Amino acid sequence: VRRIGVFTSGGDAPGMNAAIRSVVRTCLHMGIECIGVRRGYHGLINGDFVPLTFESVSGLSRRGGTMLYSARSEDFKAKLGQEKAAATCKLLGLDALVGIGGDGTFRGLLCLAQQGLSVIGIPGTIDNDIACSTYTIGYDTACNTAVECIDKLRDTMQSHERCSVVEVMGHHAGHLALNVGVACGATAVLVPERTPDYEQDVIEPIRRARLGGRTHFMVIVAEGVDSAYNVAQKIKDATSLDTRVTVLGHVQRGGAPTSRDRTAATYMGYEAVRLLAEGKTCRVVAMQGDAYVDYDITEALAMQKGLDEQTYTVMRALTGVQ
Ligand code: F6P
């Protein structure tokens, strides 16, 4: 491998910059040139690139967002877009690509592999919804950001004796909501992996908490299960509590990455380049527990990731759900 292209695609995640830095510096360490492709697949189609040097990625680990910008490209879904992207790689002399993102990013990499490129994926998403990996870059920072916001909300909910209903991101997955709910000591947590029984999962825990002397309540709703406004209305109808809705939204994607995200991103960036240097292709770098491993992209995309059963059991025990 002589020249590698690196890009970020899909929703950005804190730690993507640390992964870019790691890819660039590992490349240089191994005598490989590294080119940054801006705006994900959109940039590949349009030849939007920037040469990356040791200095150009200096101080990047602690920065949120992605210096290479990110995008969700509609054009790349069509064969013509994929051919144009492959043509850009040919023009720039890129013989390999490292894509940082989620499942959509990995599917795109497979299309480019069919055009003869060597490709490696790195899981970067706050949703932690990549089946082959127990961890994705950005998840820890997003959890911490959400917890910090919810702690602040709790202060005002307590003062006014209200019920806070907080909508947390996660796309179709409930990992973020579940983890945040446990960390915040929520009254109830709703996740898309379990069809909610509102009476049992939300109203009864609120009633029990009230009987125990509590005067404010915190309900966490994963965006994939229902709108927080609907849930708040149901709570109000059943209990007459004064409810307030907060949709945390994109604040969860911002901020300086935590130590965990910086470290995971740095290892994954290193692994991606190491795999390419060893002649490997069509792999996703992943974590299993504390170990860094890699999977064939097609196999990785076919895998399913369920909710963490232990955490779910603990959440139910602590919220008093029967
Ligand atoms: O995949 C990351 C994510 O933040 C999801 O949690 C959310 O559903 C989605 O992206 C939002 O996408 P956008 O930034 O395009 O609104």
Structural account:
- The protein has 322 residues and is α/β, with parallel strands linked by helices.
- 44% of the residues lie in helices and 18% in strands.
- It is built from 11 helices and 11 strands.
- It has helices at 16-29, 40-46, 79-92, 103-114, 139-160, 175-184, 198-211, 228-239, 259-277, 297-302, 309-319; strands at residues 3-8, 33-37, 49-51, 96-101, 118-123, 163-168, 188-190, 217-222, 243-247, 283-288, 291-296.
- Strands 3-2-1-4-5-10-11 form a 7-stranded mixed β-sheet, with helices on both faces. A 4-stranded parallel β-sheet has the order 7-8-6-9, sandwiched between helices.
- The radius of gyration is 22 Å and the shape is elongated.
- The chain starts with a strand and ends with a helix.
- 50% of the residues are buried.
- The model has no long low-confidence stretch (mean pLDDT 97).
- Bound molecules: 6-O-phosphono-beta-D-fructofuranose (F6P).
- Residues 11, 125-127, 169-171, 223, 253 line the site of 6-O-phosphono-beta-D-fructofuranose.
- 6-O-phosphono-beta-D-fructofuranose binds at residues 11, 125-127, 169-171, 223, 253.
